[in-house]
Design goal:
Oligomer: single chain
Distance between the termini: 34 Å
Order of helices and strands: EHEHHEH
Radius of gyration: 25 Å
Helix content: 40-55%
């Protein structure tokens, strides 16, 4: 029985791919050919964190980011609060947006001040794997390899 809790898979490696999409396509191929895919796992190996620098952080960006976030949060809160009133709902929404914008603008500025100039840039991080392996339970591994060999001949 396959454990429903994620963890290290057991079994054998039946395929290795450079890109996740290729591994996903291989599992889809097995599924299309009625293979019991519940005995498979796609495992990314040789993980790396990649941080792409997207720009310079400034006081203006910190304040504007806080203002925008606060306005959206205020809109959400205002819409929720307006559900409980019959009149004046427009005022509730506008005031919630205004107060949210003010508070988050302050939090954005304070947060940027606390960095002390040590991180004056914005970035986005992602974890990527250098290869993806398909693991299969031992009792189905030979069948999986045979199917994947046919896929390899068809696409190669």
């Amino acid at each position: 029985m396959v454990s429903p809790v994620p963890g290290l898979p057991t079994g054998m490696v039946v395929g290795t791919y450079d890109q996740y999409e290729q591994a996903q396509q291989a599992v889809d191929y097995l599924s299309d050919h009625k293979f019991p895919v519940e005995h498979l796992a796609i495992v990314g190996t040789d993980l790396r964190q990649v941080e792409r620098v997207t720009g310079r952080m400034t006081w203006g960006k910190a304040i504007a980011g806080g203002l925008a976030t606060g306005a959206w949060l205020g809109l959400f809160v205002g819409l929720l609060l307006s559900l409980f009133t019959d009149e004046g709902w427009g005022t509730i929404i506008i005031m919630s947006m205004a107060w949210g914008a003010v508070f988050m603008m302050i939090f954005g500025a304070v947060g940027y001040a606390f960095t002390g100039g040590r991180r004056d840039f914005t970035s986005k991080s992602v974890i990527v794997a250098s290869k993806y392996e398909i693991y299969c339970q031992h009792q189905h591994a030979e069948d999986a390899r045979n199917h994947l060999a046919r896929l390899s001949l068809r696409t190669g």
